[in-house]
Amino acid sequence: MDVVGAEVELTVVGSQIPLKGKVYAYDEDTNTVAISQGLDFQIVQLTQVEAVKSLSAPKLEPIESPLPIDLQSMQNSFTKRALPSIPVSTRAARVYETVSKTMPTTWDGVNIRVLDVVTVAPPYKEAVSAERDHQASKRVQTIIDSLN
């Protein structure tokens, strides 16, 4: 149904005041329509609508061009995530993969560097930071301990 974007006035069962707004979405499966009124939204079950008055046709708004992609930045990101050129243990790969899901992580030879302040060296059981009580070090250690 091509009604998205149309200005409408709905008369809803049991309501004295008509609902005016722009059709934001229509779902055929649930038989509902979402009406936007500025920043407010009303979801209306179409079985509860007594009458519909069209105030304006849907406006076809131009599609914005997508944001530019910095390919060099993407390539750098993939390079940093790649396994090191030298073979590492399954545990090293597992620690790296798990930590990198929540924090920026890179390989430094066979060592794993997290946030450029924490180092995890073979056998990948301890996170070490130059700052003894660094919060990131504690977080990385918690992740490592959870893998045991």
Task: Give your account of this protein's structure.
By secondary structure, the chain is an alpha+beta fold. It folds into 2 domains: 7-56, Roll (SH3 type barrels); 78-146, no CATH class. It has helices at 71-81, 90-100, 135-146, and strands spanning 7-12, 19-27, 32-37, 40-45, 49-56, 105-108, 111-114, 118-120, 127-129. The longest helix has 12 residues, at 135-146. It is elongated and about 70 Å long. The mean pLDDT is 87. Pfam families: AD (PF09793). InterPro entries: AD, Lsm12-like, LSM12_ABD. Residues 58-148 form the AD domain.
What does the overall shape look like?
Answer: elongated
Q: Indicate the low-confidence ranges by residue numbers.
A: none
Please give the largest β-sheet: 5 strands, antiparallel
Task: Provide the helix percentage.
Answer: 10-25%
Range of strand content:
25-35%
Highlighted features:
148 residues, alpha+beta, four-stranded antiparallel beta sheet, 3 helices, elongated, LSM12_ABD, Lsm12-like, AD domain-containing protein, AD
Quick structural overview:
The protein has 148 residues and is of the alpha+beta class.
List the helices and strands and how they pair.
Blueprint: E1 7-12, E2 19-27, E3 32-37, E4 40-45, E5 49-56, H1 71-81, H2 90-100, E6 105-108, E7 111-114, E8 118-120, E9 127-129, H3 135-146
Antiparallel strand pairs: 1-2, 1-5, 2-3, 3-4, 6-7, 7-8, 8-9
InterPro entries: AD, Lsm12-like, LSM12_ABD
Pfam family, one: AD
Organism: Tortispora caseinolytica NRRL Y-17796
